[in-house]
User: Fold ABC transporter permease from Rhizobium quercicola.
Amino acid sequence: MNAILPAILFWLFAWALNAWLVRRTPASKTGDRAIRLVVPVLFGVSLLVLWEGFVRGFAVPAVLLPPPSMIWTRLISSLPTLWADFRQTFLKSVLTGYVAGCGLGFLVAIAIDRSPFLQKGLLPLGNFVSALPVVGIAPIMVIWFGFDWPSKVAVVVIMTFFPMLVNTVTGLASASSMEKDLMQTYAASWFQTLVKLRLPAAWPFIFNALKINSTLALIGAIVAEFFGTPIVGMGFRISTEVGRMNVDMVWAEIAVAAVAGSVFYGVVALVERVVTFWHPSVRSGRT
Assistant:
């Protein structure tokens, strides 16, 4: 119980400091950015301190919930294994499947936009396939493409293809009739209208799909590894170490996956700010 009181006191101090910081109005953008960075970091650290204090104070068995210090020790001591798993799952399966799925979904959306037949025939099918659970798709992909990372890429492609397809089709249709009439007045071709009007209008929808897919791709690859993989990968390590009761290693893998997914999402969001700088949500400082 001795560890609980200091943890609660630290949490109260962090809460009060954050409440004071969010009420500040910095005179410079640098100060504003510093506050935006410090507040979530301090909040996260306070949660970790509470976690550490309560687990140690109530003597929670490590097999149920290890303290953050134990997870950090395991993470540092297992860097080669974690790197091999990260390379197998994220660099090979996630990135490859993400690029292929999003790119294919974008190209098919352009084709659907040109063809009313495809729009009426393929979109309902896409909505049906997108509702299929990954736990049902993954074993089939393993049978078709083998146990290595190509089968995980196939799962990621399926999971990312249809969000990109639906969002791109919706975005291409978001341009107003008045704007389209103006392009016709200028005798613009279909391609010129697409590049100069309809794609810029669709960028917020496209980046919405890219951000959604950045998390779906990681989830799909990890879950797919539960159903067959070489002796490497985040999903393989999680399922194996759970069976061995090495819960600290499981949490270390979860931490790596969480950081990788957050960084991936953040990179996509930063690219969105650059490309859609004109959008009201970006101009007002929201992403």
In short: The first helix runs from residue 4 to 22. The mean pLDDT is 85. The radius of gyration is 23 Å. Residues 85 and 234 are 5 Å apart (CA to CA).
